[in-house]
Amino acid sequence: MLTRRLIGATTLGLLARPALAQWQPTRPIRMLVGFAPGGGTDITTRTIGAKLQTLLGQPIVVENRPGAGGNLASEATVNAPADGSALMMGTIASLVMNPIMTRLPFDVLTDLTAIGRSVEVTNFLVVAPEKPWRTLPELIAAAKARPGELSYGSSGVGGAGHLGGALLDSMAGIETIHVPYRGGGQLITDILSGKVDFSIATAATVLPHIEADRLRALAVPSPRRSALLPNVPTVAEAANLPGYEVANWYAMMGPRALPRPIVNRVNAAMNESMRDPDVATNLAKHGLEPAPSTPEELTGFIRAETAKWRPVIERAGANAN
């Protein structure tokens, strides 16, 4: 799949390459991230941003604005000048889930400009090794025996970790407590210490700790097992919950009315950066798979994801808590 993505990125990069000459930034570019340093969004932005600096000829300054499930970064981007000096790495939380669950003072599709998708993200459901559960059914049985007592942490309201826990509650018939954090870096500290009982978190956040036996992976919230940990079952197969699936992805956005030459230039540079072997290898180590797109494809994708997840969120009873 990684090879297919890279071939697609190559094609997009070649098609968009003429746009590279249409706009030249004249000052450093702020790249807003709605979560604290150390999580998957932050790692993705810094990895791609390092190559973008060369391609765009200006420093990329990553600016972390954690809080409200990414909404603080979104609002800052909405209010930024439409000159390419401020862009945002959005997530499924900030671009799809939060607009469904929360009344926002802006509209994602009209007050932000779609530039392009960056990566698809691998997540794992993990517990600290001191916890007694060695399988997902054991965790679910404990939650059924102690309704309202077990807790799960997420990197923020509306993210894949939040929805994944809410969906597990709904489909498994359990009741757990959601504990939102301001990013994956802060979340990991409390997972490791056992302050929260389990979490669905990005591979970028938890994989090093799984490999060091500081966390135990019980399942993957995806339709297929991950090549990173092929022996870890999916949630659907481990807990006999057919249809359980939580996707995760990131995408680049800009302010409203961002001129098309800037959109084209940044899109082409993003796609070219993800074709770089070193960038692709570094992303893959963190469970991040390049998933480039055109701006129009990203707009359609956000609309489709919103239509897909709205009924799921309503059935799961997920809200901005």
Strands, helices and their partners?
Elements: H1 2-16, E1 29-33, H2 40-56, E2 60-64, H3 71-78, E3 86-91, H4 92-101, H5 108-111, E4 112-121, E5 123-127, H6 136-145, E6 151-154, H7 160-172, E7 177-180, H8 184-193, E8 198-202, H9 203-211, E9 216-219, H10 235-238, E10 249-255, H11 260-275, H12 277-285, E11 288-290, H13 295-316
Parallel strand pairs: 1-2, 1-3, 6-7, 6-8
Antiparallel strand pairs: 3-10, 4-10, 4-11, 5-8, 5-9
Q: Rg to the nearest angstrom?
A: 19 Å
> How are strands sequenced across the largest beta sheet?
2-1-3-10-4-11
Unreliable segments of 5+ consecutive residues: 1-21
Q: Given the structure, what is the number of helices?
A: 13
Strand content: 15-25%
Proportion of helical residues: 40-55%
Taking the sheet with the most strands, its summary is: 6 strands, mixed
**Mean pLDDT, nearest integer?**
90
Instruction: State the total count of DSSP E strands.
Output: 11
How would you describe the shape?
globular
Element string (H = helix, E = strand): HEHEHEHHEEHEHEHEHEHEHHEH
Question: What's the end-to-end separation, in Å?
Answer: 35 Å
Signal peptide: 1-21
Organism: Neoroseomonas terrae
Family: Belongs to the UPF0065 (bug) family.
Protein name: Tripartite tricarboxylate transporter substrate binding protein
Q: Can you tag this structure with a few keywords?
A:
alpha/beta, 5-stranded mixed beta sheet, 321 residues, 6-stranded mixed beta sheet, disordered N terminus, 13 helices, 46% helix, 11 strands, 18% strand
